[in-house]
């Protein structure tokens, strides 16, 4: 028995001795593991949602798949780790996940003192209110005294407080740990209004027992740029995640899609050549293969395809591009050039 | 001379025997008792009749989809249609024979324990249950070797996951608990101190804080690159948590063994571990069977907490389907189904412990 | 373990065979191993936090929180600090645990005694209650009460109305709140005076009974005096207390005292679950009192209820207290399941929202665990003191 104890303690010692090693870079870790660990939501249609076979879909999911395609050449080499809003930053800080792609709003605090880096924006959103039509409320300024369902640990919770305080109104915050639970609370009349990013409200509205009985109020009370997040202090990985998304946006701008990517390899346009790696060494300087965007575009597609497939007008969410259109189309989507 | 024949005994008065006598004695022995009986009867009736009406009489047991259900009655069709998901979670469909085989192997280990079989066979089955079965079950469920396709633990769910958590937890928590209890009773002050701090820490903090730490903070405490499966971490968290309780239960048993037993064992010249294994523990564990059973049952119930860290155990699986807008308000049915499953397992375990206690009763407690 | 004091000492055992040497060596080894594991974990954490750019320290407690909390017994609004959210969460945890302990004890004792009732039906109902509630996971019971029962209540506009004073809806229970006007301080003074008076009266009555055997009816007097004196003060000072009755306005009721349904569901589940364990503890405590005690008490001519109160329960308490303590601890820890339904307890508010807004996971989790450790130690200590008071005084 003593011997077993001794062996056990030796084993633990050995395990902890690894701690003296210098920290490896995330990019190398992901390549070594052959798998990207991606933090997503526990289920939000259009953004990250598992089906009954455990396959994940959504725009946040595709953002991770694109990174996996760029780094590992396989968009399926992703382990999706569902996290509640309250768990997500701790999971990223601790190293439980490599990238967090969970409709997370880019803010100063998160970018600085939480030790995180936002790599870009994959959806420009704003906070709104969903209300039962039966209440006859037409404006967010008529909500004095309402009970509001919201999700714990989100910017929504803070904006809500700001909005009501700025307009000198009272409210009662009914806080749930998942967006699904808050929608359920709203459905069960635990609260009068449900607040969240408007894209989420559109998604959650589809899950109500009577979607027609609820409407989104016109007021948008905040800016919510949502995007993937990585840890601070690993610039190589930060750049990879950042430029995969920029690559997808640039690809849309230059008309490269999953359908025509193989033809585009012969394109004479130097912009396209640099994106696809037929010219220059953009991949190499990022620490990837030069043709990393080919894998991304073949397996996931460009930003526009990602949008249409998950949240666009033909999906249950039925969202228009609006702000999320390319800058050339009147939106604010503007990626730095591949050069 | 005719012997004196005593007259045959008169039967007890009608009011003291039969149904009436029983009623009088047990329900209406005084006016106060009678009143309580009537009030209780009223409450039972007003609670049970609507419940039975809803759950059995007006209920729909089979059919297709939500349309086949009637308002006012329970919609068991919902449970029937989702049963696969409730039992296996998202385990891949073509591979379902693997969990099924594990359930069979599990039944081989457990069911005979309830049947009248010989002690020897019982012992071998128990040994099989804690050695061969877990290993076989692991390889079957996880795959990745012997030509079996690998199934990540994130796909395990439902009752399968609940049973995995509970079974591994139970067979790991008891030995750890015994070692901790012995450590706490040790004559070596440092060992004792370590065990006391360990036990008291785990007993004082809520399980969900531990699960939270295990699920999202663990990599912070470990060297970079060292990582464990999420299910594994939940398992370790629950096991250590209940092991601390187990340790206190076992300690109670150790304290109840008369000092003479310790001294006699020592006088026989046995070493520490043999003293414990051969003399002390068999007696101590027997005394605390009810306590062990309670700890095992609470471990089983505590497995539901993993839903808070995003694992889909039985409760998590059922809860995740309740918000499906296609099914109008099946909440009560879903929760009652889960409650029934847990109740059957927990009640079964508590009955089994009662039986074991009687079986091992040798008549000289103290 | 004692070294034997035989007249002729045998040769000293080899050091590695000497139990004392072995024990010391083993302990040093164990201490080193544990110390080293602890040190490594600490070092790893520091190194990891540094390399990942996570800020550390407790300075965040002074920053503005900026989020609302649905229920707070102490003053709180969004402009207060994260430190304040800690206190709000702590007070809410203490509230639900305290009420839960109180209610679970009452229900548990009633069911435990009912379990031993001579009335067959009552005993069976108690048994059914125990077997059902303690064999179903608490989390499930919380969900059930919250979603399936309280969630099914009507909305605030169709609230169940109790005499226009109290209302029950899926937003919780609204009760009238007393508003103490000027002069109501006299009522407090009257109440204290009544309590002190009854206390001394009871002491005097006990001494008199011990000395003379005469019983003085303390209880009826107390029942009259304790509400009576404040009532006289109330009338004498011109009825300064008014009631703030909840009124429907806008979305929900305003005014009065509001008990949110999260609190109700959590309290209900904690009470019923824990009471089923307490009932079993009470039953085994009572059955542990030997039958001779009951018979002897009956032979003295005591009526059944007095036997229970004066003879059985005081002796049973000695068996009941230690496991009861651990049930109280369990209830307190289980109150953290509040997070599942959004009752703003310590884990939900502080380890949930505050942690997420500030990102100080290590500090916040450590503070939360420290609170539970402290509560556990405090409850253990109190119950140990009480246990010593009721323990058998052996001479």
Describe the 3D structure.
- The complex is a heterotrimer of chains A (339), B (366) and C (395).
- Chain A has 339 residues and is α/β, with parallel strands linked by helices.
- Chain A has two domains: 24-124 and 226-329, D-Maltodextrin-Binding Protein, domain 2 (3-Layer(aba) Sandwich); 127-222, 3-Layer(aba) Sandwich (D-Maltodextrin-Binding Protein, domain 2).
- Chain A has helices at 2-17, 26-33, 59-72, 88-94, 108-111, 155-166, 179-187, 198-205, 235-253, 261-264, 270-276, 282-286, 292-299, 303-310; strands spanning 36-40, 49-50, 56-57, 78-82, 99-100, 116-118, 123-125, 127-132, 146-151, 171-176, 193-197, 214-216, 224-226, 229-231.
- In chain A, α6 (155-166) links the parallel β9 and β10 (171-176).
- In chain A, α3 (59-72) crosses α9 and α3 runs antiparallel to α13.
- Chain A is globular and about 60 Å long.
- Chain A starts with a helix and ends in a 29-residue tail after the last helix.
- With 366 residues, chain B is an all-alpha fold.
- Chain B folds into two domains: 28-58; 73-91 and 151-360, MetI-like fold (Orthogonal Bundle).
- Chain B contains 15 helices and no strands.
- In chain B, α13 (289-302) packs antiparallel against α15 (331-360).
- Chain B is globular, with a radius of gyration of 27 Å.
- The model of chain B has no long low-confidence stretch (mean pLDDT 83).
- Chain C has 395 residues and is an alpha+beta fold.
- Among the domains of chain C are: 18-51; 82-155 and 262-390, Orthogonal Bundle (MetI-like fold).
- Chain C has eleven helices and eight strands.
- In chain C, the strands form three sheets. In chain C, strands 1-2-3-8 form a four-stranded antiparallel β-sheet. Chain C has a two-stranded antiparallel sheet with strand order 4-5.
- In chain C, α10 (346-358) runs antiparallel to α11.
- The longest helix of chain C has 34 residues, at 82-115.
- Chain C is globular, with a radius of gyration of 28 Å.
- The two termini of chain C are 32 Å apart.
- Classes of the chains: A alpha/beta (339), B mainly alpha (366), C alpha+beta (395).
- Chains in contact: A-B, A-C, B-C.
- The interface between B and C is large, with 54 and 53 residues.
